[in-house]
Amino acid sequence: MAPDTFLALLTFAIVATVTPGPNNVMVMASGANFGLRRTLPHMLGITFGFGAMIALVGVGVMRAFDAWPPSYTVMQVLCAAYLLYLAYRIATAPPPGAAGPRARPFTALQAAAFQWINPKAWAMGLAAVTLYAPTRAAESVLIVAGTFMLVAMPCIAIWVMAGQGLARALTSPFRRRLFNGLMAGGLILSLAPALI
């Protein structure tokens, strides 16, 4: 990959990863409710899950969807339904410590699996592979996947730290419920660009 193409890919990866979307809304809420240390598996799951998704999309997963075009609609409906469920879970999350074992952040495996139903992840992955690995050569696909994995942790950490910073203001149950409601609303709003 030429240096100017790689620079363009790097810029695209940073902008695509740091802008609002389901992953960032969820890690911000997790940072506010659980802190950075307990959110770290979620962050690692996003990083490695999305990298794996790009690699697999680049080497041919999209051919399965192309073979049966209605699968795109099925995938959109399933993605939207699951994100609405997650928005409900965020909105109704009890304060830390109040729910015992029920309240817990995403595990790395859950976060990695979530990438496959995240509309923004699909849009980013398809665009990245199409623009920066158009021949689907394994080396190009791996560079695209590796670039996203390189920028993911710092970009996601910004959202987690913002959530952690907000946690200091969430001292009352009302404020925490309001914050969680706003995060749930943000998650729902993040669906609009991908579904329209």
From TrEMBL:
<dbReference type="GO" id="GO:0033228">
    <property type="term" value="P:cysteine export across plasma membrane"/>
</dbReference>
<protein>
    <submittedName>
        <fullName>Threonine/homoserine/homoserine lactone efflux protein</fullName>
    </submittedName>
</protein>
<feature type="transmembrane region" description="Helical">
    <location>
        <begin position="141"/>
        <end position="166"/>
    </location>
</feature>
<feature type="transmembrane region" description="Helical">
    <location>
        <begin position="72"/>
        <end position="91"/>
    </location>
</feature>
<feature type="transmembrane region" description="Helical">
    <location>
        <begin position="44"/>
        <end position="65"/>
    </location>
</feature>
<feature type="transmembrane region" description="Helical">
    <location>
        <begin position="178"/>
        <end position="195"/>
    </location>
</feature>
<dbReference type="GO" id="GO:0005886">
    <property type="term" value="C:plasma membrane"/>
</dbReference>
<keyword id="KW-0472">Membrane</keyword>
<keyword id="KW-1003">Cell membrane</keyword>
<keyword id="KW-0812">Transmembrane</keyword>
<dbReference type="GO" id="GO:0015171">
    <property type="term" value="F:amino acid transmembrane transporter activity"/>
</dbReference>
<keyword id="KW-1133">Transmembrane helix</keyword>
<dbReference type="Pfam" id="PF01810">
    <property type="entry name" value="LysE"/>
</dbReference>
<dbReference type="InterPro" id="IPR001123">
    <property type="entry name" value="LeuE-type"/>
</dbReference>
